[in-house]
Design a protein that fits this description.
- The structure is a single chain.
- The protein has 316 residues and is of the alpha/beta class.
- The chain is built from nine helices and 14 strands.
- The longest helix has 18 residues.
- The two termini are 33 Å apart.
- The structure holds threonylcarbamoyladenylate (TXA) and magnesium ion.
Length: 316
């Protein structure tokens, strides 16, 4: 990436503007995390409710420590193993992180991304960058700069193009702020990998209607394409409409069928791009074969279950 473009992005961030930038997971919609007015613009641009906290991106562990009130031993070890990379650590926050970023929670989610453009941006800025995925609230996360430009046109000052995202789905989120480590969102850094480093990790309970949410981002309607999406086997597809079927084991003899990669990492890298493309093609429905049950597929199962949640397609 041209250093001139990084400098331009930093100049925009310094004046409180929003910048779209690539990370290895998905594209982020960034603002200076130490500028509350800029953070406010993220919520406005995404149509995001104030109850959903933002991840703060850091250039290194020292910057993470400067934002955390407590930096537990487990955070140090996980950062050593997985940073820079697709793992977000939730820890108690210092007051310089405003309540708006954390949706009023006393904790903050911190992540050092490994995409070279994200790292160059963070290093040149010298300040932390708050960034959710760069899509309208509840929509599909963007995995190319074009996805960001299409869905947030006019609402972002500049989009840095770092090519398609290598991981393709959002980071794993682990909370280290409670009595025991807890997995708040599965991702391509798997539960097993995290447990190898810090021992037993509890799973967050699924949010139930009306109950206070342990992880506000566990909104059941996250990550949806506009086209209705359902999980179904080739023998149980809808009998009406123009549909498309994404499968691992067996195609449909009646409907257009697209094979998904059998390797979970390759599948994650392709998933959102495929759904964005199908959304553009105007199908009546998208059916996806239920993903394999093995642990390395848990993040893909999570995203597809949310995308297929009742009412998901009616929310844009
Ligand atoms: O891969 C990613 O994490 C991408 C890239 C841009 O870094 N970002 C992303 O952000 O997916 P977003 O806003 O779409 O999802 C952030 C999620 C929240 O929905 C929530 O689950 C969790 O991170 N989170 C952030 N701060 C938290 C906190 N203080 N306590 C609990 N969960 C938190
Ligand atoms: Mg998101």
């Amino acid at each position: 990436m041209d250093p001139q473009q990084i400098a331009e992005a930093v100049a925009l961030l310094r004046t409180g503007q929003l910048v779209g930038f690539p990370t290895e997971t998905v594209y982020g919609l960034g603002a200076n995390a130490l500028d509350p007015a800029a953070v406010e613009r993220i919520f406005a641009a995404k149509g995001r409710p104030p109850t959903s906290p933002l991840i703060v991106h850091v250039s290194d562990v020292a910057m993470a420590r400067s934002l955390a009130l407590v930096w537990p031993e487990a955070a140090e070890r996980l950062a050593e193993h997985f940073w820079p990379g697709p793992l977000t650590l939730v820890v108690p926050k210092r007051p310089l992180i405003c309540d708006r970023i954390t949706a009023g929670l006393p904790t903050v989610g911190l992540r050092m991304p490994r995409h070279p453009v994200a790292l160059a941006l963070l290093r040149e800025a010298g300040f932390p960058i708050a960034a959710p995925s760069a899509n309208p609230f509840t929509g599909l996360s963007p995995t190319t700069a074009a996805h960001v430009r299409e869905s947030l046109a006019g609402r972002v000052a500049l989009v840095l193009d770092g090519g398609p995202c290598e991981v393709g789905i959002e980071s794993t989120v682990v909370s280290l702020a409670g009595p025991e480590p807890m997995l708040l969102r599965p991702g391509m850094v798997t539960l097993g990998q995290v447990e190898q480093v810090i021992g037993c990790v509890r799973l967050a309970a699924e949010p139930s209607a009306g109950a206070p949410q342990e992880s506000p981002g566990q909104h059941p309607r996250h990550y949806s394409p506009r086209t209705p999406l359902l999980l179904a086997r080739h023998t149980a597809l809808p009998s009406r409409g123009r549909g498309v079927f994404l499968y691992w084991s067996k195609p449909s003899s009646e409907y257009t069928s697209i094979a998904l990669p059998e390797n979970p990492s390759e599948c994650a890298a392709r998933l959102y791009g495929t759904l964005h493309e199908l959304d553009r093609q105007g199908w009546d429905w998208i059916a996806v074969e239920p993903p394999p049950g093995r642990p390395e597929w848990s993040a893909i199962r999570d995203r597809l279950n949310r995308a297929a949640a009742p009412g998901a397609a009616s929310v844009s």
